[in-house]
Amino acid sequence: MSLTSSPLPEPGAPMGHFVSDLPFDPNEAEVRQSAQSRFAEASQRQLMWWQFKKHKIAYWCGIFLLVMYSTIFISEFLAPYSQDTRNSDFIYSPPQPVRLFHEGAFVGPFVYGRDQTLDMETLRRVYTDDLTDVQPLRFFCSGDEYDFWGMVPASLHLVCPAEGGEVFLLGTDRLGRDVLSRVIYGARISLTIGIIGVTISFILGIVIGGLAGYHGGWFDAVTQRVIEVLQSIPSIPLWMALAAIIPVTWSPILVYVGITVILGLLDWTGLARAVRSKLLSLREEDYVLAARLMGARSGRIIGRHMVPGFMSHLIATATLTIPAMILGETALSFLGIGLRPPISSWGILLTEARSVNIIALYPWLLFPVVPVILVILAFNFLGDGLRDAADPYK
Predict the structure, then answer these.
(1) What pLDDT digit, counting tens, does each position of 333-369 carry?
(2) Which residue spans within 170-233 are E strands per DSSP?
(3) Rounded to whole angstroms, how far apart are CA atoms 208 and 275?
(4) What value does the mean pLDDT take over residues 21-26?
(5) What is the pLDDT of residue 201?
(6) The Cα angle at residue 137 between residues 132 and 141, in degrees rounded to 5
(7) Domain 181-389 belongs to what topology?
(8) Cis omega (within 30 of 0) for bond into 342
(9) Which of 130, 157, 371, 392 lies 20 to 30 Å from 151, alpha-carbon distance?
(10) Sign of the C-alpha dihedral computed for residues 119, 120, 125 and 130 taken in this order
(11) pLDDT digits (tens, 9 = 90+) for 167-177
(12) How many CA atoms lie within 13 A of 290 on its CB side?
């Protein structure tokens, strides 16, 4: 905008006028007023969504997590092999790169076949690509049979090896099992254990912390002492002690439920203190007093009037608690006291790489740590975005 002005006036002289040379646009004021009214009439949820979309990293991390959690419903379809399929001729086979061109001609996605020899000095299997054996990948094909969600027999896979061929995009383990397929199956356990564990933790934290903050008195004092004792015990030894109690005769499903409950029971203390501090300040508000005078019970006052006042804070807390649950399950399984085969989780897959010698010889066995890192980072960035969106008026 170009402005014309006169030189500074003398003391006591009238001030000069600043005039714009641009033509007057009558629609500009209407557009500005419409934007202001749209913001003023928006609900709290809309304001949070608009603020959240401004945080691009958190937005894309949310999409990434949504995709990851969507895959757990179709793990059998996405995995090239069943999680227990063994290829005895390809033990500790390194990853096979996918190629598109063979001798200058476009073939489409394919892998080369492999020949195996035994190194007599080191007794290691050595795999070399057979450049004359082109094995095109098949899509939406029939492969290993499986029971979809343990109920519906099926054999449809997204990607399959060529007829009579093999494809190991992330290599194989000591039993010749495809690492990629096991990572896909393991996502179902590792991702859901965080959601279920957080649900248990939130129920305990909101109920116990809400009652302590609303009523106070002896219940609050006892609750705070119990929380202090639990928080003073190191997490890993406490997890190990409780996990060791689980009988070895339990089925894999019962062990999964037991580990989930353990993680949920030990992670409610921080949330309970946060809820307590919030309710201590909210219980003196006028709307809480009005609800109490109208005869509302404590549970209704806490659940319907007080907790929704800081629900956005609870959502942000959940996104930061889920990674702790995933890491807890990974740590317990890695130490051998968590989930046990035949269940597959990212922690169980990492037990294959506990030895330094194994990592040095077969580094692709560390691939299961990649989704763990990506999911943890995504949850942390998502939590930052939700925390900022919780205060859309700033």
Answers:
(1) 777 667 777 778 888 888 887 777 888 888 898 898 8
(2) none
(3) 9
(4) 61
(5) 85
(6) 140
(7) MetI-like fold (1.10.3720)
(8) yes
(9) 371
(10) positive
(11) 999 989 888 89
(12) 5
**C-alpha 294, offset from chain centre:** 43
What residue has token string 């330094």? 356
CA–CA dist 77, 140 (Å, integer):
9
Can you tell me whether residue 84 is helix, strand or coil? coil
Positive or negative: CA dihedral 94, 97, 103, 107 = positive
Residue with tokens 């401004």: 54
Determine contact, residues 303/238, Cβ cutoff 8 Å. Answer: no
Quote the tokens at residue 278.
């919030």
* Residues ≥6 apart with Cβ < 8 Å to 318: 198, 202
Residue 365 DSSP code: G
Q: Which residue has the tokens 């629900």?
A: 311
Cα separation, 288 vs 292, whole angstroms: 6
Distance of alpha carbon 298 from alpha carbon 217, whole angstroms: 15
Q: Which among 125, 100, 102, 103 has a CA at the least distance from the CA of 114?
A: 125
Angstrom distance (rounded) from CA 91 to CA 394: 58
Predicted TM-score (pTM) of the model is 0.78
Tell me the two tokens of residue 324.
């702790």
Task: State the burial class of residue 234 (Cβ atoms within 10 Å of its Cβ: 0-12, 13-18, 19+).
Answer: exposed
Counting every residue, how long is the chain? Answer: 394
Report the DSSP pairing between strands 19-20 and 3-4.
Answer: antiparallel
Q: Where are the domains of the chain?
A: 96-167, 181-389
Structure token pair of residue 31: 């557009």
Asked if residue 121 lies in contact with residue 59, where contact means CB atoms within 8 angstroms, the answer is: no
Q: How far apart are CA 200 and CA 88, in angstroms?
A: 42
Reading the block at residue 330, the tokens are: 């990974």
The closest of 134, 135, 133, 115 to 125, measured between CA atoms, is 115
Distance of CA 374 to the CA centre of its chain: 8
148 touches 76 (CB < 8 A) = yes
Q: Distance (Å, rounded) from C-alpha 358 to C-alpha 355?
A: 5
Band of residue 13 on the pLDDT scale cut at 50, 70, 90 = low
